[in-house]
Design goal:
Blueprint lengths: L3 E3 L13 H11 L31 E3 L9 E5 L4 E7 H4 L8 E6 L4 E3 L2 E4 L9 E11 L2 E9 L6 E7 L7 E2 L12 E8 L5 E7 L1 H4 L3 E6 L12 E5 L26 E7 L5 E9 L2 E9 L8 E3 L10 E7 L5 E7 L7 E9 L5 E4 L1
Antiparallel strand pairs: 1-23, 2-6, 3-4, 4-5, 5-7, 8-9, 9-10, 10-11, 12-13, 13-14, 14-15, 16-17, 17-18, 18-19, 20-21, 21-22, 22-23
Length: 360
C-alpha cells in the first residue's frame, strides 16, 4: 500500500509576517540601476481560436516518460484533444547545442510521449540569451499564454509572457520585456486569476539579490501585457519551518551571506474554496516541495506554512493538474541532479475539508 502524507490544519501560531530586513531589501532592489527596456507596447490583436491539433500518431516514435530528461515539468490537459502537453526548456530536454527555446511533448496516457516540438524560438534580436527556464502554459480568455523565465548579460532575470492560438504555438511575446519588476532578479512566474477576475503573476524574488528568497504577487492588466499595480509580499523562504540554507551562499566580501531559496510557486483552489500554494526550497534531503495556505482564501491573505514538506526526497518545482479520468496529480522533477532529472506524476486526493493527500 502506498503511504499517504496528510496535510494537517495549521494553527494561528504558525503564521508569519514580512521582516524589516526584507522591507529594506525590497527598497534597495527597487533603487538598483541598469534595468531593462521601457514601457511595453500596445498588445497584439486577439488571435482566432484554432481547431484542435491532429491526433497523436502512435506509429511514430514515442518516448517513455522515464527516458525524458526534464526540469520544472508543467502539464496542460487539453480536453478537446484528450491530450496532455508537457512543456520544457531546450536547455534541459534537448541535446547539447540545440538552439534556445521551449518545446512541448504530447501524450494520451501520461506514460508515452511524442518527441518534442518547438513552441517558441526567439526571433532575431530577441533580448534574452540564456537561462530559458520553467515554461508554463495557461489558458486565459480563450487563448494560450506561455510564462517563462529568461535572462541576458546586463539584464535582470525575469518572467516574460507570450501568447498563441494553440497549445503548440508558435508563441509570440506580448511585450518587449519581462512583466516582473525590471530592477529585481525574478523567476518562475505563474498565473493566478482572482475571484473578481483580476489576473496576477505570482513569482519569486530571487535569493541571489535578497538572500532570503521571497514569493510575491503582482496584479496584471486584463490582457496580461503589463503590471497593473505594485508587487505584494506574500512570504519568505525562512517562513517554512522545514527550510534549510542553500548550499551555495551568495558572495559577500570576507564572509558569505547565508541564502534561502524560493522556487516554483503554483496556486491551487480546492473544491471547498481553500487556496493552497506549492513552492520549492532546500530541505533536509535536498530540494523539496512545501505547501502554504492563504488564511482568507485570497492572494493577499496571510500565507501559513505547513510544518513538513509535501515532497522531501530531493525533487521539486511542482504543479497540480487533473487527468481526463478526474484524478489529481502533482507533477515535479526528481532527483534534482543533472542529468538525472525526470518527471514524476504523484496521485493526489482532496479530502472533505479541502486538504490534500499525496501518495509517495
Amino acid at each position: 500500500m502506498k503511504k499517504t502524507c496528510p496535510i494537517p490544519p495549521i494553527s494561528s501560531a504558525q503564521r508569519h509576517k514580512p521582516t524589516l530586513r526584507y522591507a529594506i531589501a525590497m527598497a534597495l532592489a527597487v533603487g538598483c540601476a541598469h534595468g531593462n527596456a521601457a514601457d511595453a507596447p500596445a498588445p497584439p490583436p486577439t488571435p482566432a481560436v484554432h481547431a484542435p491539433i491532429n491526433p497523436l500518431n502512435h506509429s511514430q516514435k514515442m518516448l517513455n516518460i522515464n527516458d525524458i530528461r526534464i526540469r520544472d515539468p508543467f502539464v496542460l490537459p487539453v480536453a478537446a484533444e484528450k491530450c496532455y502537453y508537457m512543456y520544457a526548456s531546450t536547455e534541459s530536454s534537448c541535446p547539447a547545442g540545440t538552439p534556445l527555446g521551449f518545446v512541448a511533448f504530447r501524450s494520451n496516457d501520461l506514460q508515452h510521449w511524442s518527441e518534442p516540438s518547438r513552441v517558441f524560438t526567439p526571433p532575431e534580436g530577441f533580448w534574452a540569451t540564456r537561462n530559458y527556464w520553467a515554461p508554463e502554459v495557461h489558458t486565459y480568455n480563450g487563448k494560450y499564454y506561455l510564462f517563462a523565465t529568461l535572462k541576458a548579460p546586463n539584464h535582470y532575470r525575469g518572467t516574460q509572457i507570450f501568447v498563441a492560438n494553440t497549445p503548440t504555438g508558435p508563441f509570440t511575446a506580448i511585450s518587449d520585456r519581462p512583466v516582473t519588476p525590471e530592477h529585481w532578479e525574478c523567476l518562475d512566474g505563474t498565473l493566478f486569476v482572482a475571484d473578481d477576475a483580476t489576473p496576477y503573476i505570482v513569482f519569486c524574488h530571487e535569493w541571489l539579490q535578497v538572500h532570503n528568497g521571497t514569493i510575491c504577487a503582482m496584479p496584471l492588466s486584463a490582457d496580461l501585457s503589463r503590471a497593473a499595480g505594485r508587487p505584494i509580499y506574500l512570504f519568505s523562504a525562512t517562513d517554512a519551518p522545514w527550510g534549510k540554507k542553500h548550499p551555495f551562499p551568495a558572495p559577500g566580501g570576507k564572509r558569505d551571506y547565508p541564502t534561502y531559496v524560493t522556487d516554483g510557486p503554483f496556486l491551487y483552489r480546492s473544491a471547498n474554496g481553500r487556496l493552497f500554494m506549492l513552492w520549492s526550497s532546500q530541505g533536509d534531503q535536498g530540494y523539496a516541495v512545501g505547501i502554504a495556505e492563504s488564511s482568507n482564501g485570497r492572494i493577499d491573505g496571510d500565507w501559513q506554512q505547513y510544518p513538513e514538506p509535501l515532497f522531501a526526497k530531493n525533487g521539486g518545482h511542482a504543479m497540480i493538474f487533473r487527468s481526463f479520468q478526474n484524478q489529481l496529480y502533482v507533477a515535479l522533477h526528481a532527483p534534482n541532479i543533472g542529468p538525472k532529472e525526470r518527471a514524476l506524476f504523484l496521485p493526489v486526493s482532496e479530502e472533505a475539508d479541502g486538504s490534500l493527500r499525496i501518495s509517495q
